[in-house]
Amino acid sequence: MKRVFLIVLDSVGIGEMPDAARYGDEGSNTLKAASKSPYFSMENMRKLGYFNIDGVEIGAKEPHPGGSYARMTEKSQGKDTTIGHWEIAGVISEKPLPVYPEGFPDEIIKEFSEKTGRGVLCNRPYSGTEVIKDYGEEHMRTGDLIVYTSADSVFQIAAHEDVVPVEQLYEYCRIARKILTGEHNVGRVIARPFIGTPGNFTRTSRRHDFSVEPPKETMLDQLKESGYEVLAVGKIYDIFAGRGITEFVRTTDNGDGISKLLQYMDREFEGLCFVNLVDYDMLYGHRNDVDGYAKALTFFDGKLPEILEKMKEEDILMITADHGCDPSTPSTDHSREYTPLVLYGKKIKAGINFHTRDTFADIGATVLEYFGIKPRISGKGLLDNGTMLL
């Protein structure tokens, strides 16, 4: 019974791509930045070959790595979560999703306000924690919605749970999703509920993303069509707008995500378990918290032996990322970086360096190749028609 466990360490890039300067990301290297923290330790990942990847210049190389590995190039135009995951699943985006460095146009805000019956506060790029600090009290007094964006293609709506019940906030997001089409077809509309009192506001775990559907067929669609299970952990369901997924669970943090992964590993199924661990990006990269980022990587590394222990004879583990988010640079935005790929399984030949690949889509093609499905997506499989299999 074949199973693939594909884990995305959200934002764990491994160094600037050649076009990084065009995105304002020259010099970014997320993994290297985190490795400089005294809290960083990834010895288990090192043993699989993580530090052997081309361009990775941290720690000692593993002379006999347990896995094979590659450096992945983002071929899509962009550097956000949606486009990164879509490319992993075989969709290359030739133009970036729209972003709004000056805030959303008046006509969008006017239509949104008319259809929700509420006013709008902010409407510009903002830190998610700072925006509720600066606008939360006014929101509670007026009932107006806090609308903001970031360097990503996102329309975010923050509201206090005592002012706007969460289900109502979700409905406002659905309204925004219907408005944001055509040239304003943003990647995600995000509900950002929060609680607390002025000066002590905190965001809750009931965030919800309303994503645009991938514009083309994905690896998930092909797996589902072929009768395989596609199990989604964390924000995977939201990123793909539920398409191609047979079952999903949401998560509260990385620890919960790993726990849900381990539960799926105990289950009998044939197909893909696709996991996103978002804390690196959301809690540490965007907040320039190098030590927090390092601790989160160390935590994952500490759980890796438990993951490997649960792997069965025909299981494959793939660990990658979707973009960078260097916590040591002045920017708090995503960074245009190469991403890592580590490939491990009892049936997979170890110690193979696939060097630098042309696209993240090689991951999706590899998954389909393993299940004997001819890819109708972009990318080239790494298994080379089975010659990589023992």
Structure overview:
- This protein is α/β, with parallel strands linked by helices and 390 residues long.
- It has two domains: 3-95 and 213-370, Alkaline Phosphatase, subunit A (3-Layer(aba) Sandwich), CATH 3.40.720.10; 106-211, Phosphopentomutase (Alpha-Beta Plaits).
- Helix content is 31%, strand content 19%.
- It has twelve helices and 14 strands.
- It has helices at residues 30-35, 43-48, 81-88, 106-116, 128-142, 166-179, 219-225, 236-239, 254-265, 279-285, 290-309, 361-370; strands at residues 3-9, 68-72, 120-125, 145-149, 154-160, 188-195, 202-203, 208-211, 229-233, 247-249, 271-277, 315-320, 339-344, 353-357.
- The strands form two sheets. An eight-stranded mixed sheet has the order 10-9-11-1-12-13-2-14, with helices on both faces.
- Helix 4 crosses helix 6 (166-179), helix 7 runs parallel beside helix 12 and helix 9 (254-265) runs parallel beside helix 11 (290-309).
- The longest helix is centred in the last third of the chain and has 20 residues, at 290-309.
- The mean pLDDT is 96.
- Its EC number is 5.4.2.7.
- InterPro entries: Alkaline_phosphatase_core_sf, DeoB, Metalloenzyme, Phosphopentomutase_DeoB_cap_sf.
- One of its GO terms (cellular component) is cytosol.
- Its cofactor is Mn(2+).
- Residues 2-374 form the Metalloenzyme domain.
Q: Overall pLDDT, averaged? A: 96
Largest sheet: 8 strands, mixed
Helix content: 25-40%
Order of helices and strands: EHHEHHEHEEHEEEHEHEHEHHEEEH
In the CATH hierarchy, what is the architecture of the largest domain at level 2?
A: 3-Layer(aba) Sandwich
CATH domain fold name of the largest domain: Alkaline Phosphatase, subunit A
Q: Identify the strand order in the major beta sheet.
A: 10-9-11-1-12-13-2-14
CATH level 1 name of the largest domain: Alpha Beta
The CATH homologous superfamily of the largest domain is termed Alkaline Phosphatase, subunit A
Cofactor: Mn(2+)
Pathway: Carbohydrate degradation; 2-deoxy-D-ribose 1-phosphate degradation; D-glyceraldehyde 3-phosphate and acetaldehyde from 2-deoxy-alpha-D-ribose 1-phosphate: step 1/2
Binding site for Mn(2+) 2: 281, 286, 334
GO molecular function: magnesium ion binding; manganese ion binding; phosphopentomutase activity
